Amino acid sequence: MDPEGLALLLPPTTLAALADSWLREDCPGLNHAALVTGAAPSQAVLWAKSPGVLAGRPFFDAIFARVNCQVSWLLPEGSKLVPVARVAEVRGPAHCLLLGERVALNTLARCSGVASAAAAAVEAAREAGWAGHVAGTRKTTPGFRLVEKYGLLVGGAKAHRYDLGGLVMVKDNHVVAAGGVGEAVRGARQAADFALKVEVECGSLQEAVEAAEAGADLVLLDNFKPELHPTAAALKARFPGVGVEASGGITLVNLPRFCGPHIDVISLGMLTQAAPALDFSLKLFAEGTAPVYPALP
Fold first, then answer.
1. Quinolinate phosphoribosyl transferase C-terminal domain: which residues (predicted)?
2. For residue 211, which phi and psi values (nearest 5 degrees)?
3. Per annotation, catalytic residue among 49, 80, 139, 225
């Protein structure tokens, strides 16, 4: 999917509400620095200082829109960044531009970091000759999930379920509470009705077979190491229509070991939980001059 089109997934009202909440968190009271800068018209350049994938333009736009500033982008969403790169220009009253600066940079840096990690994971999978789905998980930052899930998509990965309502996931604790795999799956199947799929976390081939027999659509083989591929092959031989997801302890380094002909999805919590943020900065420049990134001391 074209990263530029992904912005259509984000409702404008949701973007505005998120931007408001982030700005209120950063400045809930008096903004004393506004007296230093004043309200004169100003302009700044957004610079990318580290390599990666650009992601998060809609959030950046929404934040500056809430403080009466306009953003002009020089690079499209999903661009591969080669530092130091001019990414965008922002114009507006000086005190407003600086009010939105840190919030916008934080959001863009985190979103781009997730997209960069996702792109690296997808590339590793394709280089291993595997054409399945690389996905994230629900291991997201509270209050920041939409940004991180969006970043996964820009990076070419799948978001997996957005929340508990997107898929009925039967985990190990659900199995214990329900009294067994079969009981848990049958309850989940009834709750899901026709609208949702049911996925079951399994710790052995026996549990996977039991889950498939009870009506699971997908089976999650979590923290399987040497026995992952034989287990997936045996399950697919009996239930070819059941999807198989591999998860648990997967990194960009060991991901190729999880790629196989009987694995449909590989999910990595580290794409959202451990992705390093990219480095961006916003530098004001005088009207009529050519913006140049400041030389390092």
1. 114-283
2. -65, -45
3. 139
